[in-house]
Specification:
Muramoyl-pentapeptide Carboxypeptidase, domain 2; 12 helices; 8 strands; binds zinc ion
Length: 298
């Protein structure tokens, strides 16, 4: 009996050992399979990345060829890998600033909008708004449907009300303007000068004296308002006289004065008033300088 019992126990033990071995083998097999799968995944991932990069590059290259024939030539004469690198390198500055490629003679720096004194943001033909610049809008005067930066709108509303009490209506004509609208206006103006016989380069420079390229206008930032009229004769009006007398009290300045066109590079615009805050508006008015000069002194 003892022997039989011993044999049964022994067999049970052997079975246990075999079972444990089988479990261990299965575990090892799973581990090996998993590691192969993982390495396959990496390869797949790399391939996918490679494809996506190539697609991106070729799209950029296709875009770039619209602007630069040089890239096309490079793509033809160099091996594909170098061509891709060349295309990527060529296209990257364009990503940083589209406008400099779009309009010959313009190479604006990205305006510094990340300042605590946001009312002094300088936007002009040399300082373009960042691509991701966003503005929260508010109606400048009740019922007009014309918007400004929501931080500026209450100041315009206050000025509008005060002028109204003096019997002067400061009709808001154009406040915040979408960049796409700015682009259309600017390009229409270029066409206008081209139709008059100017070259594209000359027409672009002439257009920019009147309408700034997209992203370089204070209207795109919602910081300025065109008031009452877009005619230079506006300077003879009661509204203009009122603004010259009182606008600084509400933080607005005449942005493109007659005697500063050599600095602003913009024709005299008696209707264009820019918000710069009460304190700075008063200083700018007292000094008789334009915003560019003021910021140099500042
Ligand atoms: Zn304007």
């Amino acid at each position: 009996m003892d022997y039989i019992e011993y044999s049964i126990k022994k067999r049970k033990k052997e079975r246990k050992i075999k079972l444990a071995a089988a479990v261990a083998m299965i575990a090892v097999a799973i581990l090996i399979a998993f590691s192969v799968f993982r390495s396959g995944g990496d390869v797949n991932e790399k391939t996918t990345k490679g494809v996506s990069t190539e697609t991106g590059t070729s799209e950029e290259a296709a875009d770039t060829t619209l602007f630069e024939d040089v890239t096309t030539t490079k793509n033809r004469t160099e091996p594909p890998s170098s061509a891709s690198t060349a295309a990527t390198t060529t296209s990257s500055p364009r990503e940083e600033n589209t406008y400099e490629y779009a309009y010959a003679g313009f190479a604006p720096a990205v305006a510094n909008t990340d300042i605590s004194e946001w009312w002094l943001i300088l936007v002009n033909r040399d300082n373009i708004l960042p691509k991701d610049y966003s503005v929260t809008l508010a109606e400048a005067a009740p019922g007009t449907g014309v918007n400004l930066d929501s931080r500026v709108a209450p100041h315009y509303a206050k000025m509008y009300k005060a002028a109204g009490e003096d019997g002067v209506t400061l009709t808001p004509l154009s406040g915040h303007r979408r960049i796409s609208t700015q682009k259309n206006n600017f390009e229409n103006k270029i066409s206008y000068y081209q139709n008059k016989g100017y070259s594209k380069a000359e027409a672009t420079q002439l257009a920019a004296m009147i309408i700034l390229p997209p992203g370089t206008s204070e209207h795109n930032a919602g910081l300025a308002m065109d008031i009452c009229s877009l005619d230079e004769r506006f300077e003879k009006s009661d509204e203009f006289a009122w603004l010259c007398e009182n606008a600084a009290e509400y933080g607005f300045i005449l942005r493109y004065p007659k005697d500063k066109t050599d600095i602003t590079k913009i024709t005299y615009e008696p209707w264009h008033w820019r918000y710069v805050g009460v304190k700075d508006a008063k200083k700018i008015k007292a000094l008789g300088v334009c915003l560019e000069e003021y910021l140099e002194m500042y």
